[in-house]
UniProtKB/TrEMBL annotation:
<dbReference type="InterPro" id="IPR036322">
    <property type="entry name" value="WD40_repeat_dom_sf"/>
</dbReference>
<feature type="compositionally biased region" description="Polar residues">
    <location>
        <begin position="1"/>
        <end position="12"/>
    </location>
</feature>
<protein>
    <recommendedName>
        <fullName>WD repeat-containing protein 79</fullName>
    </recommendedName>
</protein>
<dbReference type="GO" id="GO:0015030">
    <property type="term" value="C:Cajal body"/>
</dbReference>
<dbReference type="GO" id="GO:0030576">
    <property type="term" value="P:Cajal body organization"/>
</dbReference>
<dbReference type="InterPro" id="IPR051150">
    <property type="entry name" value="SWT21/TCAB1_mRNA_Telomere"/>
</dbReference>
<feature type="region of interest" description="Disordered">
    <location>
        <begin position="1"/>
        <end position="41"/>
    </location>
</feature>
<dbReference type="GO" id="GO:0003723">
    <property type="term" value="F:RNA binding"/>
</dbReference>
<dbReference type="Pfam" id="PF00400">
    <property type="entry name" value="WD40"/>
</dbReference>
<feature type="compositionally biased region" description="Acidic residues">
    <location>
        <begin position="13"/>
        <end position="22"/>
    </location>
</feature>
<dbReference type="InterPro" id="IPR001680">
    <property type="entry name" value="WD40_rpt"/>
</dbReference>
<comment type="similarity">
    <text>Belongs to the TCAB1 family.</text>
</comment>
<dbReference type="InterPro" id="IPR015943">
    <property type="entry name" value="WD40/YVTN_repeat-like_dom_sf"/>
</dbReference>
Length: 504
C-alpha cells in the first residue's frame, strides 16, 4: 500500500508560505488534545511519555500489517505473533492439506481443513483501537482555512489511506498527504502543520464530492475524485495533478445543464449516481458527456419525493442501493434496474448521510438538524434497531463514520465534542419511547466549533476531523449616538489528525 503521492509536488505548484511558524501555533501541534481557550494557559505541551515504547511496537506491527493489505477489498493475511496460536507451525508444515482463504471487510479468516479438525486463525481490525484513553492529536491544518469565514465542509480519507480530501467554503477541494513524520514517534513533538499538496477550485458552491472507491496510489489512473457544484456538471478530477479529466453533464427538459445536489460512485466504481429533485441520473464512468440513465423516484403521487441528497452502496450486496431524500425518507432500490423495493421513514430531518456496515446487514442514516443517527437492520426492515444521539443544530452535513470492523461508530457534535460508540454493546442500550439509545463509550473535546467532518483511516488507528460553520458579525450598541462595534467572533476552522490506537 502506498502512503504518499510520488512526484506530486513536481506536477503541481502549491502556495507555500515563507512565514515562520508562530510559537503559539506550534503549541497547537504539541498538545495531546485541544481544550477551550479559557484554560489554554494551563496546557501541558508534552505528549504522554508512557506511550513511547508501546507506540513504537504498535507502529512496527501496523507497518508490516499494511504492506500485506489492499484497499480494493483484496484478500490479505494478517499475521501477529501475539494472537496466533502454537498450532500455526502445524498449519505451515501441512502442505498437502486444503487451505481456504476467505476475505471480508472485518478481517481475514484462514481456515485450514484437515481430516480431523478445522482451525480458524483470525485477526480483527477492532484490536488496533483503544478508546479507554483520550486520543492524541498528532498534527493538523489551520492556516489553510484561517482566512475569514472559510469553514470546512467535511473530510474524507482516500480509500488507500494515503491522503485526506477536504472541502471548504472557498469552493476549493484540498488534498493533504499523510505526514511522513508519522512513522517516527520521536518526531511527533515537532511535526509541522499539514499543507495542501493539491488544490482544486470549483466555480461555485460545492454540493458534494467523493473519492473513486477503488483508488490506489500505486495505480495513477485510479487516483481520481468527483465533485458537483452549483451551475456546473459533475467533474472528475485527477488526484495527482488536480487537473480535470472529464465532465458528466446532466440536462433537464429544457435542455439546460443542471447541477447534481449529491453524487456517489457505486461499489464497483463503474457508475456515478447523481441526485436531483425527484430524479436520479446514472452515468457510466467510462462514458463522459451527456449519456446517462434517468430514474424518476416519484411519479403518480407515489415513490420517493424531494431532492435526492445522499447514496449508499455495499460491496457485500451489489443488488441493492440506499437513497436518501430531503423529505426525510430512505429508499431501498434493486440494482441494476433501479426499482423501489421499500421506503423507510423515521429520520426527523432531511437525510444528509447514509452508510452501510462492512457486512452489508446494517444501514446507518443521519439527517439535517437531527440529533439521531439511526441504525436499520436490512434483515428485518420496518423497525429501527437502535439510535446514536449527538448534538446537531446546524443545516450543514455533519458526517459520521464506521470502523472497518463494523464495531465502532464515530461522529462529531455541534459543540466540538467527538463521540465514539461500540455497537457490540447493543444490550446496554437505554430503552426510550421510540428507539433504543446506545450510549457512547468515549467522548472528548476535539474542536472549539462544530465538528462537521469525521473519517477513520481504512487501516491504521487514525482519525481525521474537521470543524467550522458559517458565522455572522454580531453588532453591539456602545452608546446612544448609534456607534456600533463588532463582537469578536471565535472560529475554529481546522483539520486535525488524531491517534486512537493503544497507548498503554
Amino acid at each position: 500500500m502506498a502512503f504518499s503521492c510520488p512526484n506530486i509536488q513536481q506536477e503541481i505548484q502549491t502556495e507555500e508560505s515563507d512565514e515562520r511558524v508562530d510559537p503559539e501555533e506550534r503549541k497547537k501541534l504539541k498538545r495531546p488534545y485541544p481544550f477551550p481557550s479559557t484554560i489554554e494557559n494551563n496546557l501541558n505541551d508534552e505528549i504522554i511519555p508512557e506511550a513511547v515504547d508501546v507506540l513504537d511496537s504498535i507502529f512496527a506491527t501496523l507497518c508490516s500489517f499494511s504492506e500485506n493489505s489492499s484497499t480494493c477489498n483484496d484478500i490479505s493475511i494478517v499475521e501477529k505473533t501475539n494472537n496466533i496460536s502454537s498450532s500455526k507451525k502445524e498449519v505451515e508444515e501441512t502442505k498437502s492439506d486444503e487451505i481456504e482463504i476467505i476475505g471480508d471487510n472485518d478481517y481475514t479468516n484462514v481456515s485450514v481443513k484437515t481430516d480431523d479438525q478445522t482451525e480458524n486463525v483470525s485477526e480483527p481490525f477492532e484490536d488496533i483501537y483503544d478508546f479507554t484513553n483520550i486520543p492524541i492529536q498528532v498534527t493538523g491544518a489551520w492556516k489553510e482555512f484561517g482566512k475569514g469565514n472559510n469553514y470546512t465542509r467535511g473530510c474524507k480519507w482516500a480509500p488507500d489511506g494515503s491522503c485526506i480530501l477536504t472541502c471548504s467554503d472557498d469552493n476549493i477541494l484540498r488534498l493533504f498527504n499523510l505526514p511522513e513524520e508519522l512513522w517516527d514517534f520521536a518526531k511527533w513533538q515537532d511535526m509541522p502543520e499539514m499543507e495542501a499538496v493539491v488544490k482544486i477550485s470549483e466555480g461555485d458552491l460545492i454540493y458534494d464530492y467523493c473519492w473513486y472507491p477503488l483508488m490506489n496510489s500505486a495505480e495513477p489512473s485510479s487516483c481520481c475524485l468527483a465533485s458537483s457544484s452549483k451551475h456546473t456538471p459533475v467533474h472528475l478530477w485527477d488526484g495527482f495533478t488536480g487537473k480535470l479529466r472529464c465532465s458528466y453533464r446532466a440536462y433537464d427538459q429544457m435542455d439546460e445543464i443542471i447541477a447534481a445536489k449529491s453524487l456517489s460512485f457505486d461499489a464497483d466504481g463503474a457508475r456515478i449516481f447523481c441526485g436531483f429533485d425527484k430524479t436520479i441520473r446514472v452515468f457510466n464512468v467510462d462514458l463522459p458527456g451527456r449519456n446517462f440513465e434517468t430514474r424518476q423516484t416519484f411519479a403518480k403521487k407515489s415513490g420517493q419525493s424531494g431532492i435526492i441528497s445522499c447514496f449508499a452502496f455495499t460491496s457485500q450486496n451489489r443488488s441493492i442501493s440506499a437513497v436518501g431524500s430531503y423529505q426525510k425518507t430512505i429508499g431501498i432500490y434493486s440494482e441494476p434496474d433501479g426499482e423501489l423495493e421499500c421506503l423507510l421513514e423515521g429520520q426527523k430531518g432531511g437525510l444528509t448521510q447514509l452508510q452501510f456496515s462492512p457486512d452489508g446487514n446494517l444501514l446507518y442514516s443521519a439527517g439535517r438538524k437531527d440529533p439521531e443517527i439511526l441504525c436499520w437492520d436490512l434483515r428485518n426492515l420496518g423497525d429501527v434497531l437502535y439510535c446514536l444521539r449527538r448534538s446537531c443544530v446546524t443545516n450543514q452535513r455533519m458526517y459520521f463514520d464506521i470502523s472497518r470492523c463494523g464495531r465502532y461508530v464515530v461522529s462529531g457534535n455541534n459543540n466540538g465534542i467527538i463521540s465514539f460508540w461500540d455497537t457490540y454493546e447493543e444490550s446496554k442500550a437505554l430503552a426510550c419511547d421510540e428507539f433504543s439509545v446506545l450510549k457512547p463509550i468515549q467522548f472528548f473535546l476535539g474542536h472549539n466549533d462544530c465538528v462537521n467532518g469525521i473519517s477513520l483511516h481504512p487501516t491504521y488507528p487514525l482519525l481525521c476531523s474537521s470543524s467550522g460553520q458559517r458565522k455572522f458579525p454580531d453588532l453591539l450598541s456602545e452608546d446612544e449616538d448609534g456607534m456600533f462595534s463588532s463582537r469578536v467572533i471565535e472560529r475554529d476552522n481546522s483539520l486535525r489528525l488524531w491517534w486512537i490506537g493503544k497507548c498503554s
